[in-house]
């Protein structure tokens, strides 16, 4: 049993998932703040 | 805490804080993960699979810490009527559920080569799975209450759910002491660690990195909800004429 396959799988899933949730949160924030400042203008 | 009850004052601090938390968090996480993968030695018994420790433990910490944050926010919402507490609770829920899922999946991946099984219905794994379901329930209730108003935050009923669900946190923590299982006992306690320092040090980096990143994600989600509230308030004013 190749142990590195399990290690790489776990790291790939965690790091890509963390990147994705960070990106989605950032996009939601930027979108909402842009709409809020466009309304004010 | 009530000094930050004003959303404008909160945003003045949250805007720079988001950046200060995010980038150091990401850098620490990548350094810690890199060192955990390529610098530390393999364990004499588990071999290279021990490297999953550096992502599994922070994910467990954030899953449990996230719900503790929800419970504290719920208490502040119900007792002190802090206006941002309801929003904080809702902002924590999705990243908390995500890291609980990551903890369950990485634990399962670690279990297969170590224990010979992907899953075991023991106290630790089952209580962690219950935490994940609690998160899903809280997210559903929070989204429903936000649609009914509540300033984009969770309703008092959802906050009570968050408080009651916190009973699961000490159960998760003590599960490996109360019940025998394949899962190891507590290896890091207030009295010290049973993990050798040669293997332990990158864990501090990934723990701190993931925690800073989690805080940045929560701030981003709170800022999104507050901005959405502004847009909705403006639309309601326009609708009223």
UniProtKB/TrEMBL annotation, chain A:
Keywords: Membrane, Transmembrane, Transmembrane helix
Transmembrane segments: 6-26
Claim: Membrane is one of the keywords in the record: yes
Protein name: Heme exporter protein D
Provenance organism: Sphingobium chlorophenolicum
Taxonomic path: Bacteria, Pseudomonadati, Pseudomonadota, Alphaproteobacteria, Sphingomonadales
From TrEMBL, chain B:
InterPro entries, alphabetized: Cyt_c_assembly (IPR002541), Cyt_c_biogenesis_CcmC (IPR003557), Cyt_c_biogenesis_CcsA/CcmC (IPR045062)
Transmembrane segments: 20-39, 59-80, 92-111, 123-141, 153-172, 199-220
Gene Ontology, cellular component aspect: plasma membrane
A molecular function GO annotation: heme binding
Keyword terms of this UniProt record: Cell inner membrane, Cell membrane, Cytochrome c-type biogenesis, Membrane, Transmembrane, Transmembrane helix, Transport
Lipid bilayer topology: Multi-pass membrane protein
Cytochrome c assembly protein domain location: 36-183
Single GO biological process annotation from the record: cytochrome complex assembly
Compartment(s) where it occurs, according to its Swiss-Prot or TrEMBL record: Cell inner membrane; Membrane
Function: Required for the export of heme to the periplasm for the biogenesis of c-type cytochromes.
Family as reported in the entry's similarity comment: Belongs to the CcmC/CycZ/HelC family.
Name of protein: Heme exporter protein C
Organism name: Sphingobium chlorophenolicum
